Each structure stands twice: as structure tokens, then as C-alpha cells.
């Protein structure tokens, strides 16, 4: 049941984004930023963590989960380092995920040979 719940929640988030892309004039970058900010704001309000525990990977994998991760890192770093935590907390919390994306993206570029569209 956990897999089904994660699939449905992740699918609903992606469907909402697809609707925004299809029905509005918002550019994809603005929609992605909106997802990250939404996750951070919901994390600040204490809503996202219980939702993520219930939804599993369906809530933590999309960009809303990244925003929540940034918020948790900033909140933890502010508790430890004060106001300087605002600047370093997000980097510390998300460093592994960003590094993984870069490494696997690079490895994928070595395996597959992209072609330019003509």
C-alpha cells in the first residue's frame, strides 16, 4: 500500500505541474521555483513533514521535497550557528542530492551520445 500511496501522490504532483504547463503561460523554470518555494513554506508551517511521512517517496522525490529539505537544513543550521545558518544550512542539507545528480548526469553523458536536433 505504501508504494501505491507514493505513486498516487507523486503522480498528482506531476499532474498538477503538467496542468500548469498546459493551461498557463508560466515558464517551466518559474513552475519549478514555485514547487521548491511551496515545499519550503509548507515545511516552515510544519505541514510538509507529516505529509511526507504519510506519502513517502511520492512527496520527498519531487521538487517540493527538495524545498522541504532546504528548509530543514536552514532551520537546523540556524539553531547551531545563528543567523549564518541561513546561508549555509541549505547547502549542507542538500549537498549529497545535488552531488549525486551531477555525478550520475555526467556518467549518463559518457554512456549515451546525444545528438543535436537539426
Please characterize this protein's 3D structure.
This protein has 118 residues and is mostly helical. It has helices at 2-23, 28-44, 48-55, 57-60, 63-81, 85-111. The protein has one domain. The model has no long low-confidence stretch (mean pLDDT 91).
Q: What's the assembly state of these chains?
A: single chain
Low-confidence stretches: none
Order of helices and strands: HHHHHH
What is the 3D shape?
globular
Detail the topology: elements first, then pairings.
Layout: H1 2-23, H2 28-44, H3 48-55, H4 57-60, H5 63-81, H6 85-111
Quick overview:
The protein has 118 residues and is mostly helical. It is 82% helix and 0% strand. Helix 2 (28-44) crosses helix 5 (63-81) and helix 5 packs antiparallel against helix 6 (85-111).
Keywords:
about 120 residues; mainly alpha; globular
